[in-house]
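Technical annex, item 7. During the second reporting period the consortium partners agreed on a shared format for inverse folding records so that results from different sites could be compared directly. Each record opens with the tokenized structure and is followed by the designed sequence. A conforming record, contributed by the partner at site C, is shown below for reference.
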């Protein structure tokens, strides 16, 4: 059997969005075990929708069809949200966004009854239950495998943007973590997390993958938990650093922002970064997780230190000049995030107002449903 991975080209800059959602008990706001029952209901009512189990019974994943514009992504996400929320209502279960539940105990989680989930549980032990955190994944279509490699490395520069704009996991185990995005600290526990190694083209990537597979460490791309990874079976690059936002409107805007940055990267015909671009990757990533939009980053090329929010504003201005009118609402949503704060700031505000993490989860449910 050949060790080579076949990359199936796709239409450039198409978008697919996946959201991992929290399933909570409406009585106390804690996570509940409802994924299998909820999936069965949704599949019966909407067999055409892409809804699936995740690692534990307290999670459900929804995924859009392949889209190209903000209206298409947003319409898909709203339909998926409504379908899941209506079905959950029949089970007296709440559905919400957020990168981590604020007070759930990982010891109370149940592994979902699916072959992949059982495999992960057997391999990683207690880490599998701790992996009950919730992210947004954005797939960007690539015309060829070398373009996918360019895109992975090019998007790495913007990982702090993606983390800070999406951050919605300030609480864990009942306390404020002091991080805007605590979810990534959980993902970092896995041995194949972090960033993709620096390779210059698909041939080099295939050589790397063949070596890894020969060791028995990996068997497929699913075994890599990288921040950004190629998905050769889809012909995409998948960005995985986003917390799940509190609304589908923000999720759609983040997808379009990612697409716009990717458009600029793919317009360049050759790889224009070196491994030196990753010298400040860990520092920038930490700043975004810890401080969100109040963090600082170091430009990997100029080595200039600047405010993360200012870097986002400059990038937003650049991509808007080459944007499309149908994406204007996405730019307004990103601007609102910059001006009013990310979802982590909103969650902290709600805790200050209510004094109860249970009540915070209650308003998260309303916010995700679009009723507040």
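Designed sequence (site C submission):
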């Amino acid at each position: 059997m050949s060790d080579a991975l076949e990359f199936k080209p796709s239409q450039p800059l198409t978008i697919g969005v996946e959201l991992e959602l929290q399933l909570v008990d409406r009585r106390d706001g804690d996570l509940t075990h409802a994924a299998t029952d909820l999936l069965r209901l949704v599949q019966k009512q909407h067999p055409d929708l892409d809804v699936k189990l995740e690692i534990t019974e307290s999670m459900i994943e929804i995924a859009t069809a392949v889209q190209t514009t903000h209206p298409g992504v947003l319409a898909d996400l709203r339909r998926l949200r409504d379908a899941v929320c209506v079905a959950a209502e029949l089970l007296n279960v709440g559905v919400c966004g957020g990168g981590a539940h604020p007070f759930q105990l990982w010891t109370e989680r149940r592994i979902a009854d699916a072959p992949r989930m059982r495999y992960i549980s057997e391999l990683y032990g207690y880490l599998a239950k701790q992996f009950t955190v919730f992210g947004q994944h954005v797939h960007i279509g690539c015309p060829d495998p070398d373009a996918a490699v360019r895109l992975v490395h090019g998007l790495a520069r913007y990982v702090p943007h993606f983390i800070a704009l999406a951050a919605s996991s300030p609480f864990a185990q009942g306390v404020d973590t002091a991080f805007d995005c605590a979810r990534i600290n959980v993902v970092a526990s896995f041995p194949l997390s972090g960033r993709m190694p620096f390779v210059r083209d698909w041939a080099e990537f295939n050589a790397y993958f063949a070596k890894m597979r020969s060791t028995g460490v990996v068997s497929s791309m699913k075994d890599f938990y990288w921040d950004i990874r190629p998905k050769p079976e889809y012909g995409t690059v998948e960005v995985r650093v986003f917390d799940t936002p509190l609304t589908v409107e923000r999720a759609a805007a983040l997808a379009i922002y990612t697409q716009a940055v990717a458009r600029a990267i793919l317009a360049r015909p050759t790889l224009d970064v070196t491994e030196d671009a990753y010298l400040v990757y860990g520092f920038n990533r930490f700043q975004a997780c810890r401080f969100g939009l109040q963090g600082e980053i170091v430009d990997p090329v100029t080595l200039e230190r600047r405010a993360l929010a200012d870097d986002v504003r400059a990038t937003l201005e650049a991509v808007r000049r080459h944007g499309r009118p149908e994406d204007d609402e996405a730019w307004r949503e990103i601007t609102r995030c910059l001006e009013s704060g990310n979802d982590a700031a909103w969650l902290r505000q709600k805790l200050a107002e209510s004094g109860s993490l249970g009540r915070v989860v209650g308003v998260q449910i309303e916010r995700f449903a679009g009723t507040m």
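The CA atoms of residues 164 and 176 lie 17 Å apart. The radius of gyration is 20 Å. All partners now use this format for quarterly exchanges.
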